[in-house]
Amino acid sequence: MPWWNCILVVDDDLDLLRAYRDALEVDGHSVVLARDGHEALRLLHQGLRPAVILLDLRMPRLDAWAFREQQRADPALAAIPVIVLYSHVVDSQAMKALEVEGFLQKPVDLDVLLRAVAPYVARGAQASHPPS
């Protein structure tokens, strides 16, 4: 699987995971799904290097703040861009503490989702295909 085109989607709602996967795959992306932050970290520690991570804000076991703390602490994972998906507004300071590339409010319009990931997969494609 080309890492530059891969998107890791992390959400505890199985219906949303499937909807995101379907939309992203129709747009030509490879998609890996994780049901919570623990599963996402396990995949990343096994070598998955997605172009971008779509991360649900509130999940059981390991929420976005705990996930980001562990991700940023690992030099091999810290640079992977993250876009947070949220359904309830949280204190702006708490959101800012996540230090992510962006936020998308649920329910996410699929066109908005595709536009949000486009710069990251495009950047990865350019990096993996140097000019001749």
Question: Overview of this structure, please?
Answer:
This protein has 132 residues and is α/β, with parallel strands linked by helices. It has a domain at 1-19 and 31-60. It is 42% helix and 18% strand. It has five helices and five strands. The protein has helices at 14-26, 37-45, 64-73, 92-96, 110-128, and strands at residues 6-10, 30-34, 52-56, 82-86, 102-105. It has a five-stranded parallel beta sheet with strand order 2-1-3-4-5. The radius of gyration is 14 Å and the shape is globular. It starts with 5 loop residues before the first strand and ends with a helix. The model is unreliable at 128-132 (pLDDT under 50).
Keywords:
132 residues, 18% strand, disordered C terminus
Percent range for β-strand residues: 15-25%
Question: Termini distance?
Answer: 23 Å
Averaged pLDDT, please? 89
Taking all Cα atoms into account, the compactness measure Rg is: 14 Å
Number of helices: 5
| Largest sheet features | 5 strands, parallel
What ranges have pLDDT less than 50 throughout 5 or more consecutive residues? 128-132
Structural class: alpha/beta
* Oligomeric state of shown chains: single chain
Q: What is the H/E string?
A: EHEHEHEHEH
Helical residue percent? 40-55%
Shape assignment? globular
Strand order of the largest sheet: 2-1-3-4-5
The total of beta strands comes to 5
